[in-house]
Structures
1.
Amino acid sequence: MYQAVAPVLSLINSLGLYIHIPFCLKKCNYCDFYSVPVNDIIKRDYSKTLIREIKQWGGRLSRPIDTVYFGGGTPSLMAKYLPEIMKEVRNNFTLLENAEITMEMNPADNSQEVLEYALKSGVNRLSIGAQSGDDNELEILGRRHTAKQTVDTVKAARKLGFKNISLDIMLGLPHSNEATLKKSLEFITDLKPEHISAYILKIEENTVFGSIYNTLNLPDEDKVAEQYLQMCEYLKNMGYEHYEISNFAKANKESRHNLKYWELKDYLGLGPAAHSFIGGKRFYYSENLTEFITGASPLPDGDGGSEDERIMLGLRLNKGVEIAPNPQLLNKCKSLEENGLLTLKENLITLTVKGFLVSNSIITEILECIE
Ligand code: SF4
């Protein structure tokens, strides 16, 4: 069935498994991800479909799985089905004993019940969409939860024994400034998460924010840059390692699954809009729930893993990327280094925090020097 897009593989290196849950009860004002409304019948059908796909792919890919990531959408809406889905993952793949199993969750979703299902299914890492510690900001964003629900969710998770929790925070929000960000950072770090993902608000066209862009009172680019630098400094002082442009972790708590994306390791994505990268090939399921449920095959998305891609993704990481130097590249790196944007040690190029802020243009300049 999948012959056209992925060769039969039986490599010994491990694989990441991404399972997309494309449901949201309410669309957040800034979000343009693919997600649709859901009811109990759709949830049941979707669970059956995922199990069908897990069986098919498990029979095809004889590779151990070392990370599973339930992302969305809102995976916590499908928590009841997770134990069964994970049972089939274990039955059809070799799930390594120390596998990292993450579930994204919305603090609004009856946390105790959701957490118990997550625990039962073997989830050992939670990624909780906190976004802000201020209820006004959460309301402006169109989130379904309050700051208190985030606190309650983290407390309930700790009580059940979850030892690896990631919280999301957003920067550059309407009406935000250094003081409001400080408040959110204190809120987030008071909860002592092992990992923090930080995202700068980007206004997308087909969203509520896109339609009222001019009324949003957004901080300008320089102010957003200041917020980013303020956050990096604050989290560094709180003992978090800034291991990727948008991600911070306590020692050994980096997201092993997300590292696969940046390090060009193989992963299989199941669900509408889910992407995969296996054996140098990229492929994806189209953004259509009905097609996925009725058995549509994934679509090819070309070759992956080129040198440009390796550099582009590698420069997102604080460990940097090795590049064979040439005179033009060395000159370019020297001038970027003088501006405090990167460091060059032998063949290893690493962006600084200031460099992370303008990573897209630095990457373009570097790629121009090696073509
Ligand atoms: S941000 Fe998350 S919860 Fe909100 S609409 Fe997008 S996917 Fe759904």
Note: The pocket of iron/sulfur cluster is lined by residues 24, 27-28, 31, 33, 35, 72-74, 106 (CB under 6 Å).
2.
Amino acid sequence: MTIATDQRINTLPPGDVPPTWCPGCGNFGVLAALRQAIELLGLPPHEVVVVSGIGCGSKLPDYLPTYGMLSIHGRPLPIATGIKLANPRLTVIVVDGDGDAYQIGAGHLVHTAHRNPDITHIVQNNQLFGLTGGQSSITSDVGFKSGTTPQGASHAPMVPTALTFTAGAGFVARGIANDPALLAGLIARGIQYPGYAHIDALQPCVSFGGLNSFDPYSGRTYVASDGAHDYARSRELVGEWGERVPLGVLHLDPAPRPVATGTGTPAAEGTAHHDPADPRYRALLEGFRVT
Ligand SMILES: Cc1ncc(C[n+]2csc(CCOP(=O)(O)OP(=O)(O)O)c2C)c(N)n1
Ligand code: SF4
Ligand SMILES: [Mg+2]
């Protein structure tokens, strides 16, 4: 698809291929929310790059008319950081699953939250490994039965918002896939935040979710805050998980830390910029297309 520089995302069709997610999958809500956030901010799609890992949810960049990259399991954060450093004019967004971000990629998560590049991180948290058949993950609730936990998960789930808060993230939020309007607002605020922004997006898996499909969330979630609260309240909200699950902006640093900019130089000279009229770049980009 060729994107003219004056097009908004809502004037464009979806990506090149239709989603292969199961009917009713929460990822449809995450996709709608991200698209809505890009539209809300009026971001030119050719200046947006969405980087994912591997997993059901990580197929998302295929379904958006922006630039995108399906990368390696657990590794989208360092790749996105490199993209942002090479061309700071781009809006760089990472979308990956709980297994990707919170488990195999946990080291990158902590260091990215600490180092603070200006990227927005949306984690499709379905509390399991969807693509590989519903195995339990580090965020599975106690009692969740799967092929790897036939007696039910025995460890209390890791609370990822507490982890990124502790590592230094200045924007920490939680949304849910079945409220795309709330999630879109959080994503838009995360994109506007100057630094690393973490959005934990509860994303029910209707095929393997069991305890975690839509119904059990409905009595537990509540919109806790729009972010106007002090540090002590942030600490309570980022760690709350159980009978009650807070949504909204859980932590917003009123004095954001300096953003990681590599050597401190602006956009690298010679970096390829989107220009649909330039045949060299078209050939280059077509070379990346997997058919
Ligand atoms: C290095 C590596 N290890 C393991 C796998 C197998 N694998 C593919 S997806 C996945 C887990 C996906 O879970 P999650 O990130 O939560 O995404 P979901 O499918 O739930 O959206 C695993 C373990 C892999 N592709 N690469
Ligand atoms: S297995 Fe679960 S997460 Fe994967 S597409 Fe189906 S419903 Fe969605
Ligand atoms: Mg998952």
Note: The mean pLDDT is 90.
